[in-house]
């Protein structure tokens, strides 16, 4: 006896108020870092608004946002922080210096990502 089964999968869908999606997706997972995504967006949509904070009276385009992020990272490297390998952690992953940031939601806080 032969039985034929047709499986159907729905593409993941997010509806508010949820901040996550689950299930199968037709899109492949992309292995990119946040900084890589920002660089791509700054190259393709440099004049598009990326960040607005009314209480800080700030509006930044993707190119301005990328410039500020790069200034911060250069400043941290100039202070002596390192991206190079320091030690192995308990999960056998190589890592460099670690910085903790404690801040309210603000533009300077967003640039630390």
TrEMBL record:
Gene3D superfamilies: N-terminal domain of ligase-like. This is Uncharacterized protein. It comes from Oppiella nova.
